[in-house]
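re: ur question from yesterday

yeah so i grabbed the chain u mentioned. its 387 aa long if i counted rite. heres the sequnce exactly as i have it in my notes:
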Amino acid sequence: MAGFVNFFYPFKRPILIFEKLSERAQESGFSYFKYVSEKSIQDKYFFLIKRTAHDFEKVSHMNNIVIHGSFKHFYLLIRSKLFISSETPGHSYFWRENMGYTVNIVKTKPYVFLQHGVLGFKKLDNIFYNDRLTAPVCLITSSQFEQDIVTQNLGYAANRSPITGLARWDLIDLKRERTNRRDKILLFYTWRPWLDDVDDETFDKSEYLSSISESIQLIKQMNLDKQIVVMMHPKMHIILSKKEISSIKLWTDSDGPLNELMSSVALLITDYSSLAWEAYYREIPVIFDMFDQQRYEKEVGSYIDLNRIPFGSKVVDKISDNVQQIIAQDYQMTEEELQAKGTYFAFQDQNASQRIHDVLQNIDLRAINRDKRRLIVHAAFRIIFKR
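ran it thru and got these structure tokens back, copy pasting raw so excuse formatting
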């Protein structure tokens, strides 16, 4: 039906916004939707979310909320002219669905990638490369430093990787942040793709589990006056919940959004997570525990030299040494780190959504759709000639 309407009435098509698995309303997608909802915008914007999501109550009172799985959801997947999200288009449909007319429409829909963190410590999947049919029409960046990564490594022109700052940072009031009571130490380690399919016995013997467990124990033994919070892969939560972890809080979505948790964090301990950039933006000290750096660089990769990280401190021997250093600084970033912020964040205000919106007004969707049709034809030819 929506395809029929698009053919006979190709005007005034709406825009669909969503976040991870259509289950969240807490970062760049929601922040941008909040902006357009509060302004007199001519285009029609809708926000997609599951009724069972923890964040549903937060948005249920707002206009243009679409329930995932509803008739309106399926209608808008086809009727909308553009997706805007901090995730790939697949997060607007049924995750890992690979067949059918609708999923093909979703995969080829023009979309703007708002990002949920600054690029640097982890290479993007090849679906984001400029010459792919799955590439976004616009990939938002936060500084010249990040735009250079996108243009030099992913093949985007500068006008398709505009420097606006991330929309999620509009939810952060830096002046207020500096006066917050920061009473938590957050351990946030990323998952390893090489552990996806291993059995429990192999996982129990992995360097990943042993290194993180050791770090937690060392920090516990320091008897700090901060609450220790752990947030990572569900499999790690299951393992850690079976261990002796008194005084450790395992944080899940049901405990609250990550952006709200970050407002009370005094120290972030991570490995390669883009959350480190948000901590830097919020002026929270960061410790990098890169215990498997060589394998990570080989199997995942990084856009920056991990031996010369631009901020924070890196664990060399024991993580407790780094924590002691942060305590000596009264949980404050160094003057050098604060002075260098402008290199990695072109803007430190709450106007990223406005700048993003200004950029989107100049997107030529007709030209983009022509390019996509050309890429589809080329892909079809490659398949035919391979046979």
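noticed a couple things. Residues 365-386 form the longest helix (22 residues). also DSSP finds 18 helices and twelve strands in the chain.
anyway ttyl
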